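Data availability excerpt. The first of two example chains:
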Amino acid sequence: MRTRQISKQSLSKTLSEPWVDTTRRVYCEGDTAYVPVKEGSSFDTEIPDRVPYSGPGYQRMGDTLLLHGAAPTEEQLASLIAWENPSCILHTMTHEGVMRIPKTVVLYGTPHEVSFREAGISYTLDPSKVMFSQGNRGEKLRLRSLVLPGERIADMFAGIGYFTLSAALAGGNVHAMEINPVSFAYLTKNIRDNGLMERITPELGDCREKLSGVYDRILMGHFDAPDFLEEALRHAGPGTILHVHGIGDREPDISGTLAGAGFTYIISEHKVKKYSGNLRHSVWDVKLL
């Protein structure tokens, strides 16, 4: 591949130059960027064409890559490093307990804080210490389309702001509860960085002890959310909408709890993403009548 060699700091300005071949990927090594040039344009160096990475899927967060599922082979890992040139690669096998602490193996580099934007929202976190699923992006956008300005909203499992920030950006007033102190610290930072301090009240602790009053909408973005539904219903009334997340078919459990509490309701399921095997991550929208 014919390229021009420039400093990495100049990359953003250079990409708009007419000689740049935008159909090919820039290759970076250290502080140097190798920018592909169009046919007929002058170049100063030539590098071998890279073989596209074809191993397990991954997520990019800033300069860090996050893999789930099966670990890559040594060959796949080397190919991924050459393809993406990350500073760190983590393999997260699961998230443990109510605090959703990632069980992570470092495959390359040193874990550190990363900052990035997704759907107009800025996030900062250390993916080796707290959970973040980019597979929830569609659900965040869907939530943003549903929230009405002025709604009083409870986010029972706020984390670093996955759904809290989207709901507040849509005009909701969010009571954001998080039990993990590390996640809570990132939550408060992300609230500040996105300028949403007036719309979000963060609170550290167990949501079952922090819920207060009656809410217009209750966000339950945890795989064990159906097990917390009875407590959530104590802070709901006619017209309240609940978004109850879970893995597999949890609708019978949700319906049983609703009936047991004496509510009439409308329930609908929305698929979020594949989880593992034949299991899917879903969210059940429940409107109390």
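And the second chain:
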Amino acid sequence: MAAATTKRPKFDNFAEPMEQLGGVPLERILMQPPPGTATEKDVLAAERLPRKRLCEPVDGVLVEKAIGIRESMLAAFWVHRIHDFLGENPRDIVLGADGMIRTFPGQVCIPDVRLISWERLPGDEVPNQGISRIVPNLAVEVLSPSNTKAEMARKLCDYFAAGVELAWVIDPKTQSAKSYTSPDKFVPIGKAGGLDGGSVLPGFRLPLKQLFASLRRPRGC
């Protein structure tokens, strides 16, 4: 996995950090601690607030993760299906959005779903860490209305630079997806298609119709 350090940039005006953050809506940018000073301790403190806030620090700025009930439901469906698959193929573990990962010093990402091979886990045991240093093999992001293209492009660059091998970006609005093997190389998946685990999760495939059907009440219930 990549070992890298990041140097926090100095900005001349507020437009520059906004561009660095990918143009995310202002309501997702926390003012406490002051932008540019946030640390991993602040990330964990925000999670413990009465109104739990999942935040990703970007260049010392806390950016609240965009997630709603539909995105949470789709992520839970992914976790459930992958967990069932791993019951017969126990080569990996699957985690939801509460699991934070440190991509680089001072940079924390929160995939909606992540898959980690046992080979990446030291001592063949899940570590007890608030923010994990274990980079996943697969990262899944379910788009929310406030996610921007620039924000997702930045996250994909961070993921692959840190050692992620495969990333799935799910778009509930169009009921489609993209399967990335690098920040700028992807396969588009339409409504009638499905996502394939490839060499990262051999044998796993899920049609998008099944995924998005989970948002509707089953017939007869």
